[in-house]
Amino acid sequence: MQFKQLNTKIDFQNWLHTVLDPLKPLYSQGGARLHLGDTGVTYPEVSIEMEAFSRPLWALVPYWAGGGKDERFEEIYRNGLENGTDPNHPEFWGGFTDYDQRFVEMAAIACGMIFTPDMIWEPLSDQGKKNLAAWLYGINEHIIPDCNWQFFMILVNVALKKLNQPYDSDNLAAGLEKVESYYLGEGWYRDGASSQKDYYISFAMHYYGLIYAVCMEEDDPKRCRSFKERAELFAQDFIYWFDDNGAALPYGRSLSYRFGEAAFWSTYVFAGLKGIPLETVKGLIARHLQWWSQQKMFDRDGILTIGYGYPNLIMAERYNAPGSPYWGMKTLLCLALPDDHPFWSAPAGELPKLDTVKTLKMADMVMHRCSKDTVAYPAGVCEKYGHGHVPEKYSKFAYSTRFGFSVAKSQIVLHENAPDSALAFVIDGDDYVFVRKVSDSYEINDGKVVSTWTPFPGITVKSTIIPEENGHRRIHEIDSSYDCIAYDCGFSVEKFTEGYEEKIQGTYASVSYIKQGCTVTGQGPEAKGIVINSDPNTNVLYPNASIPGVSYKIEKGKTRVETVVETYVK
Fold first, then answer.
1. Average pLDDT, whole number, for the chain?
2. Are residues 432 and 341 in the same domain?
3. Would you say residue 466 has pLDDT above 60?
4. What is the pLDDT of residue 525?
5. CATH number of the domain that 457 lies in?
6. Above pLDDT 90, what percent of the chain?
7. CATH number for the domain including 309?
8. Do 107 and 152 belong to one domain?
9. How big, in percent rounded to 5, are the helix, strand and coil portions of the chain?
10. 351 within domain boundaries
11. Which of 121, 101, 120 is nearest to 52 (CA)?
12. DSSP characters over 444-462
């Protein structure tokens, strides 16, 4: 998919149609189900197909609210809502269990009821309205996770309330209080009990908070004002996650939602926030969607795939169903803006001048604008294990918009582990590879990150990461009970492309091609340059990659090694 620069409202509407129109022939006869693939997930087929039905609404509702017309989609969703909530219809979405995935998918329908009742609610029969309201009310009768899911319950009850249907006022109030308890300060939330900071703070906590702020401003003005003020603070930090070319930082879980990375900016302008200039926000959204249009994110029939820069099940989470990537459609909330809104006539502005090195204290990371690259140095704060590849998604030393990061195919041998931006230990010639899973302690001061971690019982590492002009320096103080080899690895570099070249000389290793490259130089016992040809489909941006690094001989006791990682990007 290729687009000219997105500028006018028609440009953005065309982007929507390019992504969603291939779905039209695939809906079930009754419109309530959408089967997009056969890969596995942790919930049953009815939830998989209901999810795929629901998620396009995150773009269709704004499209309709902003005056867009599409008779086929209107027919599909009118029939689908009528039939999916009818217990006597073969496409009925069914009843619920605790922690039901269908509760997640209710939120898009609820937003449709709030902002476009003429499309989602009024066309239904009287019985259809009763069925839909009763089906949605089910979220109040079961347990939902103590996290961003509270907003799904909140939005459902707001929708029911606004349409004079039975709703649970106690649950609504309790959910809002839980969200309040997640707030950390300086614009940042935690996602329930989770300590890790990722895109859920932007495309969940703030996104839904700002939707609430728009639709409940008269009912709950104090809270709505607070949601907006927090989003303004958050925007000052979050802008650092975006590259000049439109790419956002590949970091954390749920990257299969792809262009959902910019959803915050769409709800930012939708809510009328102005701390970041309108031209800058438009440029962020436009360049981001343009960047994604150049990636290999569709199958041959134009259906979004699970993956990131290309179809990739290795990096997926256990909750990524075939329809899951359509959650990225939340970024098209800007389509709800009226035709005469200044957003549509504003030029797509460039990013403002940002600090070269910026400490994001509440995000537990340091950001570095290194040449044309945007790099994050996180402290390794995460849940250790969870939805899939948690250490790789949160605990590497560096994450880059231009080089991405890699996930392990296995913990056996280096090329399957693909330990880019990591210090990897191999003990006593064993084939198993051990890296930082989570930091035991950390501090972020003066633009550097210091963390203490344990890759394996009996080995403790204190790592100091310091940004430098063309990359960063790593100082590792290792206390080991074993003789072992440690491999300090740089970024993955795409293989099989123009000008690809590998160089190894003494304590130096380099991998490059015509557009970019990475070099690694080390000082320490028996330091030797190496290149790891990682297994296919381990890097999230490109399917084939190599990793330059330096190996060190670690003996029992204390060892200090120092590694410099440098990059260039054209």
1. 97
2. no
3. yes
4. 98
5. 2.70.98.70
6. 96
7. 1.50.10.10
8. yes
9. 35, 25, 40
10. no
11. 101
12. EETTEEEEEEEEETTEEEE
